Amino acid sequence: MPDSKTTPTARATGTGTTRATTPTARRSEATRAAILDAARERFATDGYERATIRAIAKDAGIDPSMVMRYYGNKEGLFAAAVSIDLRMSELPAVPRDRIGATLVAHFLTLWEENEQLTALLRVGATNAAGAERMQDVFRDQMLPVARAACPDPEQVPARAALAATQMLGLALTRYVLRMPPVTALTRDELVAWLGPTLQRYLTAPHSAWPEG
């Protein structure tokens, strides 16, 4: 029989206990949701550089100080608000020995079409919250690809991370820093240079890796 003292707002925490959702907690969650909704709309409309905390707060109907209280600064807000889909499900079915080149081509298309992804990379290069968000995106979405290609399940996280270093490094040097030698390379040249590296990271047999 339920405890008669448990309020209608109590809910399970997943650990066998209950926690009351107070009016203050509900207001806080509603405020956060309003801020994030306004931020997503403003970032999409104005872009990262032009969007301001003041404009986002006005759209959310709150004081700018509340945005700062919850997210610290614009970089932290952007990192929390942005939702990035690496579209890994769109990867074509290819032989395992072509996964490296396929991934490079896929990410080149992705970086060139998704301004939010480039903006998040800029934030991640200078802001801890942005860096953490970028790490989460790549860790969560690259792991299934690495899991399908990797010959050793225990090495999946390391291999996925190494593949991510190549794609993030390419994006940083080509689309953010715009290093001339990198921007001068054609798409086919980049696939030819980086495809074998990703292929090795994802599919090289265990014996090809150094012992720990």
Task: Break the fold down into its secondary structure elements and pairings.
Elements: E1 10-12, E2 18-20, H1 23-50, H2 53-60, H3 64-71, H4 74-81, H5 99-113, H6 115-126, H7 128-149, H8 156-176, H9 180-183, H10 187-203
Antiparallel strand pairs: 1-2
Helix pairs in contact: 1-2, 1-4, 2-3, 3-4, 4-7, 5-10, 6-7, 7-8, 8-10
Structure commentary:
With 212 residues, the chain is an all-alpha fold. 67% of the residues lie in helices and 3% in strands. The protein contains 10 helices and 2 strands. The chain has helices at 23-50, 53-60, 64-71, 74-81, 99-113, 115-126, 128-149, 156-176, 180-183, 187-203; strands at residues 10-12, 18-20. It has a two-stranded antiparallel sheet. A hairpin with a 5-residue loop joins strand 1 and strand 2. Helix 1 (23-50) packs across helix 2 (53-60) and helix 8 packs antiparallel against helix 10 (187-203). The chain is elongated, with a radius of gyration of 22 Å. The termini are far apart.
Question: What's a concise summary of this model?
Answer:
This protein has 212 residues and is an all-alpha fold.
Strand content: under 5%
The Cα radius of gyration reads 22 Å
Distance between the termini: 55 Å
The biggest beta sheet is recorded as: 2 strands, antiparallel
List keywords for this structure.
212 residues, mainly alpha, two-stranded antiparallel ribbon, 10 helices, 67% helix, elongated
